[in-house]
Amino acid sequence: MAADADAGASAAVTTDREGTHDEPLPGTPTADAGLGWAVAGLLLVVALAALTRFLTTNVPTWTEGTAFGDVAESVEFPVYAIALGLLGNAVLVATHLKDRLAAGFRTELFIKTGVVLLGASVNLSLIVTAAVPAIVQALALVSSVFLFTWWWGGRFGLDDKLRALLATAVSICGVSAAISAAGAVQAKREQLAYAATLVIVFALPSIFLLPWLADVLDLTPAVAGAWIGGNIDTTAAVAAAGTIAGEDALAIAAIVKSTQNVLIGVVAVALTAWFAFRVERRPDAEAPGGGEIWRRFPKFVLGFLAASVIATVYTSNVGPDAAKPVIAVANDLRTLFFILAFVSIGLELRVRSLRTAGWRPVVVFGAAAVFNLVVGLGLSTVLFRGFEA
Amino acid sequence: MSVQKSSPAAEPAGTPVRRAQRLHLSEDWLATVVGLVLLVLVLTGVITGPVVP
């Protein structure tokens, strides 16, 4: 009986009949939200980011010598940013302002700009050295996690389109991948909203869990970074976890995550063809061209590489001592964009669609996340053992 | 009578999923340009430490 109820609820994300029609998709404004509301939303993000910066700087001083002093000293800015974002989220939901202001919560834009700036602090030689293990890990992890999630989703009777969205999201890069997959398989908006929500709900605890586990397991910074980059779904959450794990782990996590991001285009094109010719067997379908891979290619990865090249050339020209304070300014800017992204990720979280979707997709996604965690740890340990970040 | 071919990825323009996809792709380029411009401004000394709050 309970299972039937859950199955019925699960249909809310697979049909047009009910559910979350009014649920805005990630990063897209609602119909009645104008530019003024978007600017107001952006100002809110900036205000909470300023408060994050203020708390990160002052809380350790305020609590010095108290029982909370040692804890406050070790709390990094992602913790304050996400907590303030979630707090703001609760206030906006209570005041019914969230949907109007949501257009200003630009997590993807902020985090991608931050990742481009991160490229300035990653020496090109590190990217070149890490490229081979990162590519091997990405190919093995993406294909195994995708196939596992697809199979497991089938065992739980999920709709094929939702299976494709969840499998792509958990195996590649969360919300970005879900958006690409939604276009490829022509998913419904409530399915995309649901997949995006699941990604963020699972990513938030991972931000704190993985760096802690890496510490408990005594992983090297390179292995920890590769594990974080290969496992956490959204790039914003990878950046947050990497920041907590340390600068060296963050660099490797960014390289590994960027490598996975590159696979979005390939997977989206494969899904497009698979759904058209094998799942739906549309007689009028055309095969997707190679241009589709480029169209879906995450261009900010090129920005990350370009920033690394520019900064490496700059450093070799002016010398490491002169370059260090200048690159530090770029790092400070990167931190600002990361804070904006972490605040936005907290503000954007929506749990409404999860309530209507039932337990099956949650179980599928949860099992896939655990599978990803275990296989990812094995691959990171083998591929990045002895690697110097 | 011509049979209209539909690309497998094709979806009616203006649908929410399509809009999200378009916005996502344009933000990719915007982030790349903004990030690189900021880096160049830092390296050329236009943005220095005190400018960052």
Any overview of this molecule?
The complex is a heterodimer of chains A (389) and B (53). By secondary structure, chain A is an all-alpha fold. Chain A is globular. Helices cover 78% and strands 0% of the residues of chain A. Chain A has one domain: Up-down Bundle (Na+/H+ antiporter like fold), CATH 1.20.1530. Chain A contains 17 helices and no strands. In chain A, helix 7 crosses helix 12 (247-279) and helix 10 (221-231) packs antiparallel against helix 11 (235-245). With 53 residues, chain B is mainly α. Chain B is elongated, with a radius of gyration of 20 Å. In chain B, 36% of the residues are buried. The chains are: A mainly alpha (389), B mainly alpha (53). Chains A and B meet through helix 6, helix 8, helix 12, helix 13 and helix 14 of A and helix 1 of B.
Overall average residue pLDDT of chain B: 71
**Overall number of domains of chain A:** 1
**Which regions of chain B contain 5 or more consecutive residues with pLDDT less than 50?**
1-11
Largest interface pair:
A-B, 61 and 40 residues
Which blocks of ≥5 consecutive residues of chain A have pLDDT under 50? 1-21
In the CATH hierarchy, what is the architecture of chain A at level 2?
Answer: Up-down Bundle
How many β-strand runs of chain A? 0
- Determine the CATH topology of chain A: Na+/H+ antiporter like fold
Number of helix segments of chain A?
17
Percentage of residues in helical conformation of chain A: over 70%
Strand element count of chain B: 0
CA radius of gyration of chain A: 21 Å
